[in-house]
Amino acid sequence: MSFSSRLGVGFMRTLAHVPLPLVRGFGAVLGRVLHGVAVSRRRVVDTNLALCFPDKSAEERRRIARETFVYVAQSWLDRSWLWHAPPAMVAKRLKVHGAAVEIDEIANGDEPMILFAPHFYGLDAAATALTMHTARPSTTIYTTQRDPTVDEWIREGRKRFGNVITLNRVDGIKPIVAGLRKGGLLYLLPDMDFGREQTVFVPFFGVLAATVPSLSRFARLGRAKVVPVVSKLTKQGYEIEVLPAWQNFPTDDAVADTALMNERLAGYIDAMPSQYYWVHRRFKTRPEGEATVY
Q: What is the CA radius of gyration of the chain?
């Protein structure tokens, strides 16, 4: 347990009680600084945007890149109040809207359901908003952090409301499928490059991307419906849109299902490109014989 990590967690606890405009203003300044000094990460963002938006002008892509660093910083600082502010304050800043049937089922239903939650910067806000209003068991797959203090802080933050079960990626699929078949929720974020093992290459904005077919497989094994959840950072907090459940999904073709997932995700991103997690090296794993893009 390092002194710096304990200091950082203490800072976030304190920041939870600072008015939101000040938190967001601090995040905006921090994001602009990061865009300037985090050169290697900025190159990742610039490469991702050039691959995914070749028809946009260079200036438009630069604007998106600058904005995405601001959203990185603001959403990170927002975890202070998401995980430490009074519940009433948290609830006031999180607005859930969208498909009424699916929202009611999340809160009160007992049918197995996978919440497809792409990596928009409000992903933790969306998880918090939904678990605040349901007693249903909700599982999320968790990547252990190197620093034990930070690891515990993130895990406890994500378990703050509701009945949340955090599973490590090494725990396998059995507890995930078992939870779904008991009528639970699975908050799933499968839109990252997790390496070559157990992935398929399907287009993402027209570029082949290593993608885990877990959404299709878990939906089939857990006999679960898939409901997309899209989160948007706003001046007042976050808007969480629950979209209608996907029809005729999954099929018997996991590769086709995964390609469809990426196609629909691209549509969600097009509506607010600056708020997607472009700082991730989404194309780091290339098909055999292709050169690295980073």
A: 19
CB contact set of 2 (below 8 Å; sequence gap of 6+): 147, 149
Helix (H, G, I), strand (E, B) or coil at 45: helix
**36, 223, 242, 244, 246 from 100: Cα distances, Å:** 43, 22, 8, 9, 15
Alpha carbons 232 and 290: distance in angstroms, whole number: 35
What does DSSP say about strands 200-204 and 207-211: parallel, antiparallel, or unpaired?
Answer: antiparallel
Q: Yes or no: say if 149 and 10 are a contact pair by the CB < 8 Å rule.
A: no
What pLDDT sits at residue 14?
A: 96
Residue 171: predicted pLDDT: 77
Q: State the amino acid at position 123 in one-letter form.
A: L
Residue type, 43: R
Mean pLDDT per 10-residue run, the chain (294 residues)? 82 96 98 98 98 98 98 98 98 97 96 97 97 93 85 93 89 90 96 93 98 97 97 98 98 98 98 98 96 96
Q: Which residues contact 159 (CB under 8 A, 6 or more apart)?
A: 166
How far, in whole angstroms, is CA 69 from its chain's centroid?
A: 16
Give the DSSP letter string of 58-101.
Answer: HHHHHHHHHHHHHHHHHHHHHHHHHHHS-HHHHHHHEEEEE-HH
